[in-house]
Amino acid sequence: VCTLCSLHREYVRLFDVTERTALHKHNTGRNCHKCGGELRDSIVHFGERGKLAQPLNWAGAVKAAEKADVILCLGSSLKWTPKDALATLKIHGKCDDVMRLLMDELKLDVPEYDRSLDPIFSLAIPLCPGEENSHSRKPIKAAEIQKLPEQTKQSCEQPVSGGWFGKGCTKGRKTKR
């Protein structure tokens, strides 16, 4: 994101833009194609407060949260946070496994991922000449077809039990340590 442009300019990339960034250090080492200002990542690290209006859209998130019956927070490092006591239910598990069980319980189909329909490929902004060596991580390519190795595929098919069935489940308030 370029924060110098009057309307913050967002740069979607096909590679990990955070390899040169860290807690409170968000400059990526690349520059805005329009104004030349330094581009920043939009990651919010633990202990930080997200300051970008976009793409984070805090105002929209707060409005939606006020109307919501339930909020699912997925991902993260699954470490303890000061907000844990506010959760009604906290499940430690792999997101894909937990969501598969939840969707089964709700009797909802999970559509198969179709890489050709992924909007990231149409939203991505290519690097300018001279920026090609500004990252070392391999970019994802639209034409790439990624297949799971046979052993990974088998382990994905093993049954899992979600936290709400007892394993990995935390409900209500925790006792103080």
The biggest sheet amounts to:
2 strands, antiparallel
Span between termini: 40 Å
In terms of DSSP E residues, the strand content is: 5-15%
Number of DSSP helices? 4
pLDDT below 50 for ≥5 consecutive residues: which ranges? 144-174
Order of helices and strands: EEHEHHHE
Percentage of residues assigned to helices: 10-25%
Integer-rounded radius of gyration: 20 Å
List the domain count as a whole number: 2
C-alpha geometry: globular
Structural category is alpha+beta
Mean pLDDT: 75
Tally the beta strands: 4
Q: Biggest sheet, strands in spatial order?
A: 1-2
Family: Belongs to the sirtuin family. Class IV subfamily.
Domain Deacetylase sirtuin-type: 1-131
Keywords: Metal-binding, NAD, Phosphoprotein, Transferase, Zinc
Protein name: Regulatory protein SIR2 homolog 7
